[in-house]
Amino acid sequence: MKEDVLLILKSNPETYVSGQYLSSVLNVSRTAIWKYINSLKENGYIIESASKKGYMLISSPDLLTSDEINTFLDTKYVGRRIIHFDTIESTNNTAKELAAKGAKDGTVIISEEQTSGKGRLGRQWLAPKYKGVWMSIILKPEINPVDVPKITHISAAAVVSGLMELNIKAHIKWPNDIIINNKKICGILTEMSGEINRISYVIVGIGINANLELDDIPKGISEKASSLLIETGRKIDRKEVAAKVLNNFEILYQNFIETGMINHSIKICRENSLLIGKNIKIINGQEEKIARAVDINNKGELIVELGDGHSEPIISGEVSIRGLNGYI
Question: Is there a single domain that holds both residue 261 and residue 296?
């Protein structure tokens, strides 16, 4: 009911809404409305009360709750249930626990802070409080497990598309890093649980460095990591970023579920690729080789040309891609 009160206030910006109107529409007492208003205030909403006028929403807190993200959300099922935490070890770990207990397809786990955020290959992901978008999407697709890596490309395309809608140009470092000005501002981690021919669930973790400042980034990674705030020079509305990524994700993901193909996602990845046309270093365990990235095929494999002139596909997984002289 508190959410309904908030929705009405948000639907009437810069306008007082009478307590009598809220009471009548929601079929509760004026006393109940007063309690809901006070509860919203305790949650950080600035609400002005005026005798004989009612209530007017002045401002909303910078929180990634369902109430806040829903304002910008256009999806049918992805993100329609958001489980919000103030602090958590890892949204991916919690998402896996909830998925195993029956959480629905499209459920999103989101936290203001992660104390043990996860990256690819067991790396740690820095996730300070109120500075980023740290979320994981629970998916339960009826697809062949070998096609799960394609969801990483869908996710990367969704992030780049969402940022583009905010007039932020970003690039993709195949397959799961989002880059601005040659620095990483977002990482994607896709994990799966299932059997040889059946998927129990897929978890897509997306970590976006939104409003981290220079002092928030350890010196050891400052040469290759950054944030939207640092690179654009403006503070980012985190809830709008989260919603736009989820909106684009559902469109691209649903197309994949219905057609079995990710052509549109790959087109976005190609057009915004940081690697195509560059010489790169391919690292697989202790083995390294130099190649030129020439394309991304419709399976999501990176096509590289080796020194002897022949081309071969590279499959994401335990492989890392680096520039010849560093991260890019």
Answer: no
